[in-house]
Amino acid sequence: MTDTFDVIVLGAGPPGENAAGRAADGGLSVAIIEERLVGGECSYYGCIPSKTMIRPGDILAAARRVPGAVQAVTGSIDVAAALAQRDYMTSNWDDSGAVPWLDGKGITLIRGTALFAGEKTVEVEVPGSAPRRVTANKAVVVACGTRPLVPPIDGIADVGAWDNRDATSAKEVPRRLLVLGGGAIGAEMAQCFKRLGTDEVTVVEGGPRLLAREEPFAGEELRTAFEAEGITVITGARMSAVSREGPVGPVTATLADGRTISADEILVAVGRTPNTDRIGLETIGLSGVAGKYLPVDKKLRVDGRDWLYAVGDIAGLALLTHMGKYQGRLVGDILAGKDVEDIADHVAIPRVTFTDPQVAAVGMTEADAHDKGIHTRTVSYQVGDVPGAYTQGNNIRGTGQIVVDEARRVIVGATFTGPGVQEIVHAATIAIVGEVPLDTLWHAVPSFPTVSEVWLHLLEEYGL
Question: What's the confidence (pLDDT) of residue 440?
Fold first, then answer.
């Protein structure tokens, strides 16, 4: 069977859905190919289940900071209820509720495994049916994402190590959890399971600090908070081997310095690898990028080809759902005839790590700016010293920091730590994308008493 559409999208995660939806809104015929669940990794194994699992611990931590409320916290988290809510939020890993959105847009859903079979041509292995060949009149959009990276550690493939999917779909809480990797996923899941009732949680990070890609103070503040909760953090350490006693026995990890750590489960969260080795790129002359991120320009075209686009994780610009959705919207608009290009990926990528304290950042770190040769001035202010923070409870701590391009007097980066700071960072995103001069930004008056008043204090620290 051969079908022809204006646009073919490989992958029905948020980036692919957005590309397909915008293209369909522009009057194009669209087919979207998905081998697993419509909604993708984020909906079923990433953002949605993880933040749902994190929420009960966050609520209790917030209540414990408030005199009067803390006295009402007399029990522990109902783990069964928390995991049941996670199951509800993922629709029990059933995408039947997600498909009608595609139908409403007139998008054809093809379930199966897609492989390129030549320029603008894709062959789909459809379960229980003959292969289906699909051809695009206009373009193919690759949005088939990434998978967890498995590090070259002796024994890691034999111990049934968890990845993000196992962690976010876990049916019970292990007594002891070892987390390999101190990035966003590792940090979030470490604290999540500790608050759900895991007795012993250990995080092993090969770099010098947690959240290595963020400002140093963010990782330091997070480590302090983790250790106060009884989470063991080991940085600057490499794991050399791991083994398990029997099929379901405890795991023993050996570090390069000879130390050993025992746990009931090990979560590996050391990064992602693109699915470019699974889609037949050699048939279109791109065998050299198999296993690598697809190179895209500001129109999100792959290798300069005017019929081939990539969005989401597989493009390697920013492995974040909201950025993939942004890229999908851009490509959909481009295919529908609009003259737009990618700005945000090169100027202001917002990111939030949903730990407690939260870490919310956008744009460049101070080190990033220096590497780009930008003359900067950095100012900071303690989030906990803002009156709005006092109203939320006692012992609220955190830091707000802005990185200013002194030549242009505009913000190029901002980082906030503390409870609930994810809602503050969008103001920084607007300031960076809009290149708002500090003298103008000073007239954006924050409401009192809100934590966003940290913006006023940051500008005062700068001298305005």
Answer: 98
